[in-house]
Amino acid sequence: MRRILVFLVVLVLLAGCSFVSNADNRNPKVARDLDVSQLAMAEPLAGKVVVLDPGHGGKDPGAMANDLIEKEVNLVISKYTKRFLEEEGATVILTRKNDREISLEERSEASEKNDADIFVSIHNNTNELPSIHGTEVYYNEVPYEDASNPYPEESKRLAEQIYSVLTNGAELNPMGVKDSGYNVLRNNTVPSVIVEVAFISNEDDAERLKDKNQLQQFGQLIGQGISDYLLGYHSERYASDAY
């Protein structure tokens, strides 16, 4: 009796293995679909091209205050954003990878040259009043000097998404999403924004901009905002009023 039971168990196991094997053989597409699905989850931004533009550079230092030079801070944050997006599968183009001066035209032309999906210029701010602090994000809608961005609604949505994620995630003072006629925005061919992360002229903001961990956080949050936009998410926490 025991031998019969053992024999039956072996038959059941063999039949199960055969079923799984035959199922795989009958559906080779299943394995491929699983691979594609897993890849999409690992690299959700595969196929997307993002131009990141670290503001200023070379002979143009940008804002200088509190022992900080804006061009240097912009580049560091941009590289952290680049790393984040590349880990999500995106192709990222930096308009400058080191301390060199490039024209506004070169910056905006990078979008068309690289067939980009979006353009994000990363800056830091300054003000005569040292008490002013926080984050602003600019997009272009109203024409300036007979030019305007061809995608104002998408640019605004991109600006709102980055602004929301950055100000909430890093607890930066939200100063608003604003329409502006900056050259790299109005003369671009894709949805475009300028992110003014913080104020170099403000002592508290400046201390955060001197902290490598803070710069990494800012860069990653900008990257998260970009990723959310490209994947079609939209934060409900956006507040348009400047403080």
CATH superfamily of the largest domain: Zn-dependent exopeptidases
- CATH fold-level name of the largest domain: Aminopeptidase
CATH class of the largest domain: Alpha Beta
Average pLDDT, all residues? 88
Number of contiguous helices:
8
**Biggest pleated-sheet summary:** 6 strands, mixed
Order of adjacent strands in the largest pleated sheet: 4-1-5-8-6-7
What CATH architecture label of the largest domain applies? Answer: 3-Layer(aba) Sandwich
Report helical residue fraction.
40-55%
Q: Span between N and C termini?
A: 85 Å
Signal peptide: 1-23
GO molecular function: N-acetylmuramoyl-L-alanine amidase activity
Protein name: N-acetylmuramoyl-L-alanine amidase
Domain MurNAc-LAA: 108-227
Structure write-up:
This protein has 243 residues and is an alpha/beta fold. It folds into 2 domains: 2-40; 45-230, Aminopeptidase, CATH 3.40.630. The protein has helices spanning 2-26, 28-42, 70-87, 104-113, 152-170, 183-186, 203-209, 212-230, and strands spanning 49-54, 64-65, 68-69, 91-94, 118-125, 135-139, 174-179, 192-199. The protein has a 6-stranded mixed sheet, with helices on both faces. Helix 3 packs across helix 8 (212-230) and helix 5 (152-170) runs antiparallel to helix 8 (212-230). It is globular and about 60 Å long.
